[in-house]
Design a protein that fits this description.
Oligomer: single chain
Number of strands: 10
Structural class: alpha+beta
Strand content: 5-15%
Distance between the termini: 171 Å
Shape: elongated
Radius of gyration: 56 Å
Number of helices: 18
Length: 629
């Protein structure tokens, strides 16, 4: 069916070209703005501009007559060279050039190339924009909603006009307006609600992205498939940039008759004579009923892994706690199985730094497969999470105010604590039921309870006391207090251990604290050196005093002994003199004479010498001459 028989009117190609240029300009303006909803609308306009550009090319092809041929350039070929191999090469070149000149580039290749290039850029930009961090929790400006909602008015008018005047036997040109219309409508509504503080409305952008991605993927597949399909008459040429999926964006359900008519007109497929389709229509209700019944009965079977158990409810009342395995119970809504973990250990850092939108930086980390995947080798370079130095902030740290005293003044100091709680669900049946009904978010409960305990502990401690505290005693006391408070709330949580990675001043004050600690160490070292020197001097003085006292005592003892010996000798001499005075006197005389003779120089003269003839030399004899005195 040609466009003239359908509409009675022919749209000039330049109209589509002008519309494509204007839509492209509007798309660039929207893409240059900040709000994501405007950018997605700009991508939708770029998608429409691509389709309008392709329609401009295809409409030129439809205006051709069936006898139209590609004009070939008139070429006067010179005489072939005489060398046979060279002549064959020249003939081959002429055949290839003739085939190249007979290709209808405008009708065969340009629409598909434009579609692939434009819609490929749209799909890539859509994925890139959705990967932008923080857009889902950002509050857009209100003027963006006003612009988008105001843009829906002319888009609705253009869509009605295009729908009233279809121009092709396939998808109508109105589908190119429906995509930006849906993008502007949903994006404007999402921006309006998000600007008022309802950030959940930003998720409507995903709907716009899904519609845009579906349309672009369809056009890309149609463009690729058109390369391998035979080209029909000029009047029935189809624009690959006109997708069928946006035609579903309408008020009301799509009718199967319209889809069958489109398939028959576009591709010659008549679904009314397909016995396979008729059989599927007849068999669909019982098959669907059987599948629904089977799906409902499958809710009565619960399969639990080795790390799972479940609380079985009957009419909302818990009746049993089942362990791992396959269990059969009443189907929903009569019976229900609420799964509970069995033996799975979790590690929760106690930190209160919040992301935009109220999400916490510290999320529940399981010690199962995720930890095994994140494990590193013994020789591997440790990651940032293994950094425990004071001069760097640790992942999962929290800051607390503690008391401080400087001289007579009292104040506050800040301490960073990296504390983690290792817990799991209780093993007994009562603990399993308490874990199901006692606490909806055990991580939040543990985080809040542990935070209050830390605040109460740090409010009565100073920095030096915290750094010098016995860590094992603090951990055990903290674990017992935390378990007692959680047990009082009937949460079904068992606190296994409390891991204190670090307690230290903030990273920014690490250098100053190091200087203070170094000054304290130097002061203590100087004091201990002075004490050591004093002890050394005192020891030396004591040693000298002891030596002098010992020498004095020895001298006194010697003098006393000499006096005692003299006294004893005197007494003995007195007794001897009394017993025999003559003998004592004579003996004393001999003793003194012997003593005197031992010190005197004697000259002994033989009495037989002649005194008149003998000569005596009384000069002293020098020592060592060997002479006799």
């Amino acid at each position: 069916m040609s466009q003239s028989t359908r509409t009675g009117r022919v749209v000039a190609p330049w109209v589509y070209a002008v519309a494509a240029a204007g839509t492209f300009v509007l798309a660039m303006i929207a893409l240059a703005l900040t709000p994501l909803a405007l950018r997605m609308t700009g991508l939708a306009l770029l998608f429409s501009a691509t389709g309008l550009a392709g329609e401009a090319w295809v409409s030129r092809v439809r205006r051709r007559t069936e006898t139209w041929t590609r004009p070939v350039r008139a070429t006067v070929h010179p005489k072939l060279p005489g060398f046979p191999p060279l002549a064959k090469a020249v003939l081959l070149e002429r055949r290839l050039r003739a085939r190249f000149e007979r290709i209808d580039w405008a009708g065969d290749w340009v629409p598909g190339a434009v579609t692939v290039l434009g819609n490929g850029l749209v799909l890539d930009a859509t994925v890139s924009f959705l990967r932008t961090p923080g857009w889902a929790v950002a509050q857009p400006p209100l003027w963006g909603a006003i612009v988008l909602l105001a843009a829906t008015i002319p888009l609705v008018f253009l869509q009605r006009v295009a729908n009233a005047h279809p121009v092709s036997s396939g998808p109508g040109i109105d589908v190119l307006v429906r995509v930006p219309l849906v993008a502007a409508l949903l994006g404007g509504g999402a921006t309006l609600f998000a600007a008022q503080g309802y950030l959940w409305a930003n998720t409507l952008i995903y709907v716009v992205a899904a519609v845009l991605a579906l349309a672009t993927i369809e056009t890309l597949l149609r463009s690729i498939a058109q390369v391998f399909l035979p080209l029909g008459p000029f009047a029935t040429r189809q624009n690959p940039a006109l997708p069928w999926s946006p035609s579903l964006l309408r008020w009301g359900w799509p009718r199967a008759g319209r889809a069958a008519l489109w398939l028959r007109n576009a591709y010659g497929i008549d679904l009314a004579r397909s016995w396979v389709l008729a059989f599927m229509v007849r068999a669909a209700p019982p098959v669907a009923l059987f599948v629904l019944l089977l799906a409902w009965l499958s809710t009565a079977v619960t399969v639990l892994g080795v790390t799972e158990r479940a609380v079985i409810e009957r009419l909302g009342v818990p009746v049993a706690v089942e362990g791992p395995g396959i269990h059969v119970h009443w189907p929903w809504p009569v019976g229900r199985a609420r799964p509970v973990e069995l033996g799975v250990v979790h590690q929760l850092p106690i930190v209160f730094s919040a992301k935009p939108g109220g999400r916490l930086l510290a999320e529940l980390a399981s010690a199962g497969a995720s930890d095994a995947e994140g494990a590193m080798g013994a020789e591997a370079i440790p990651g940032p999470t293994a950094d425990r130095l004071w001069d760097g902030s640790h992942p999962g740290e929290a800051s607390y105010l503690i008391a401080s005293r400087s001289g007579d003044r009292e104040g506050f100091q800040i301490v960073n604590v990296d504390l983690r709680v290792v817990f799991r669900a209780s093993d007994d049946s009562d603990g399993a039921m308490a874990a199901v009904y006692g606490a909806m978010e055990p991580a939040s409960l543990i985080r809040a309870t542990a935070g209050r305990l830390l605040v109460s502990h740090f409010s009565s401690s100073t920095l030096d006391e915290l750094l010098g505290e016995n860590r094992a005693q603090f951990v055990e006391r903290f674990r017992q207090d935390l378990q007692a408070r959680i047990a009082a709330l009937h949460a079904g949580i068992s606190v296994i251990n409390v891991v204190v990675e670090a307690i230290h001043p903030p990273s920014g004050a690490a250098a100053a604290y190091h200087y203070v600690q170094a000054a304290g160490v130097i002061s203590d070292a100087t004091r201990f050196k002075s004490l050591a020197r004093a002890y050394a001097l005192r020891g030396t003085a004591a040693e000298d005093a002891t030596h002098a006292l010992t020498l004095a005592r020895a001298d006194a003892s010697e003098q006393l002994a000499a006096a005692q010996a003299t006294l004893t000798t005197f007494q003995a001499s007195t007794k001897s003199e009394r017993a025999g005075p003559d003998v004592f006197v004579f003996e004393s005389w001999l003793t003194h004479v012997g003593s005197a003779l031992g010190r005197a120089h004697l000259t002994i003269i033989d009495h037989r010498l002649d005194s008149e003839k003998a000569t005596l030399d009384l000069r002293p004899v020098a020592a060592g001459t060997g002479g006799t005195p």
